[in-house]
Amino acid sequence: MSTTVPSEGYLPHVLVLLATYNGVRWLPDQLETLLAQQGVRISILISDDGSSDGTLQVAADLALRHPCIEVLPPSEVRLGAAGNFFRLLRSAALDHIDYVALCDQDDLWLPGRLAGAIAQIEEQDAAGYSSDALAFWPDGRERRLKKASPQRSLDFLFEPAGPGCTYVVGAALARSLQQELRREPERFAGIGYHDWLIYAYARLHGQRWVIDPAPTVRYRQHSSNELGANFGLAGIRRRWGRLTSGWFRGQVLQIANLWPRVPRDFLLRLTRLRWKDRLWLAARARHLRRRPRDQLALALMLILQILR
């Protein structure tokens, strides 16, 4: 469950896990918004994934000026976004930490983001928190990235709880997952989204999760984004490609099989995936995604695959 604030006047200690890769243009601005967080005591752990633009040196220089920043030694191999965050979580010292927050290198955090997240976690006795985000582009465009729809019985198998850069989790949940990542790292090889896994881990272990409709992060969009927001026709094509290639189903099955707590009939049909199974899943799409339009899109995609 969530971490309880010990006494009035106590500042919760938050460890920020910051993954970097060729982000020298944005890292100083992002770190400035982290250091400006109000109502918390903050530590920052940075892992660089083999940058070639000087990001690691910038991080090291900032660590010299700010004792709360620690930089891990360079990784010997490219890990990718999920692998880099798993490395951060495995490496983190969590003994005296109250909360863990995930952080990208190129976003901007609002000043009360962490304190507000912690307040909601405590009020709702939750294990984790995420929020909507405000996507923004270099040309000045902005768009709300909405994720705060009612949670469904199995939505955690088909989507994360929102952008990973908005996640804040209690130390108990972070320690529990850390133990599994350290004990059997090979079980998590091939997981494409660390935020999806963390949300699924919490829900599969009976933990509550808060999805805040208020944006708490300015989510920068640029050509170097590894993931970015799934807006427009390009986002539709990307999602369709993942579904038709089998990648998406593979991710769902891998997460579902990590912990034997998924309904057997659902898992059987998803594994077998004959045309009758696709219809069965399509008819239950309301349990698999949060937003009605996403439920409809998933059902249509499953039916179109039958027609193909």
Word description of this protein:
- The protein is 41% helix and 16% strand.
- The protein has 308 residues and is an alpha/beta fold.
- It has 2 domains: 13-220, Spore Coat Polysaccharide Biosynthesis Protein SpsA, Chain A (Alpha-Beta Complex); 232-307, no CATH class.
- Strands 3-2-1-4-9-6-10 form a 7-stranded mixed beta sheet, sandwiched between helices. Strands 5-11-7-8 form a 4-stranded mixed beta sheet.
- Helix 9 (264-272) crosses helix 10 (275-283) and helix 10 packs antiparallel against helix 11.
- The longest helix has 16 residues, at 292-307.
- The model is unreliable at 1-5 (pLDDT under 50).
What is the terminal separation in angstroms? 45 Å
The percent of residues in helical segments reads 40-55%
Q: Could you give the count of β-strands?
A: 11
User: Which strand order do you get reading across the main beta sheet?
Assistant: 3-2-1-4-9-6-10
CATH second-level architecture of the largest domain: Alpha-Beta Complex
CATH C-level label of the largest domain? Alpha Beta
How many domains make up the coordinates? 2
Mean pLDDT across all amino acids:
90
For this structure, the CATH topology of the largest domain is Spore Coat Polysaccharide Biosynthesis Protein SpsA, Chain A
Q: What's the SSE pattern?
A: EHEHEHEEHEEEEHHEEHHHHH
Main pleated sheet: 7 strands, mixed
